[in-house]
Amino acid sequence: MRLPMSRLAPGHPLHETVTALLVTGTVMLITVCVVLVVFLLFVWALAVGARVP
Q1: By residue range, what is the domain housing residue 43?
Q2: Hey, is 3 helix, strand or coil?
Q3: Structural domains counted in the chain
Q4: pTM assigned to the model
């Protein structure tokens, strides 16, 4: 017998695992976005610096 996700109690191990996975995935996504933005800004600064004597 399989319970739907909405029936899981907050203390359920599976619920905690799913929550942990969601939090980890969100943190990783934010980290990747921040790193990508910083990298693009760095490349853009290098390009502008190389173009302007």
Answers
A1: 23-53
A2: coil
A3: 1
A4: 0.57
